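Fold this complex.
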Amino acid sequence: MDTALLDELTEALAAARQGATTKPISVTLPAPLADAFRLLADRGLIDSVSDAATHALEEALQAVIVGMRLDAIYAEHPHVRPTEQEVAEMAEHAGVALP
Amino acid sequence: MSLTVVLDGGGVHAWAQRVPPRDVLAVMEVIRRRGAGRVLVPSVVTVEALTGDARDAAVNKVLKQVDLVEELPLTRARAAATLRQGTPGSAVDAVVAEAAVRSRAGFLITSDPDDMAALIDRGGGATHIVTV
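Structure:
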């Protein structure tokens, strides 16, 4: 496991959640998605497109961090890796779909 | 739909183990496979999860990697108090359960499944409880 990378990602996620300073960046999105989120913001259904994007990126980063920890565990103990069926059943318990 | 996993003290300890229980690994695999999720721990959980000495190293490492919710506004404390009435759950349990209900968590990883189930039922939640 790349411990330094994991530490850096973990610190970044923690800082973002604690209200770190922001900076503008330019991203390219499918136009309908950008338009949909602009509409949601205009109608007050989300605070802002930036907030929605931040939330989504935080959750994506959380998944990466979880994945890195799982990989580190499996590297030392490959026999503990859950089967595809176990993961699918767990997802079903929570009523969520897997890609 | 966003997926939230809530951990109580037992859940934090389980995820901090060198080899976490298989069900915990499966829950975390669900987050990984979906490519997004939130692992939420109300900070009051640390009262039960930490000892204040060197034994805390693994737990402290995990606490840095989760969404540690440090605020407990009065409205949420009131909601937790309401959940707790008529159940044997502790105040900490009630705060954890309230967080699970409010966030519509998909999973709650706990070492106290009976009390947590009672609390979540009172809140009308549908969180799947994973016992460790």
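Chain A touches chain B through 33 residues (CB under 8 Å).
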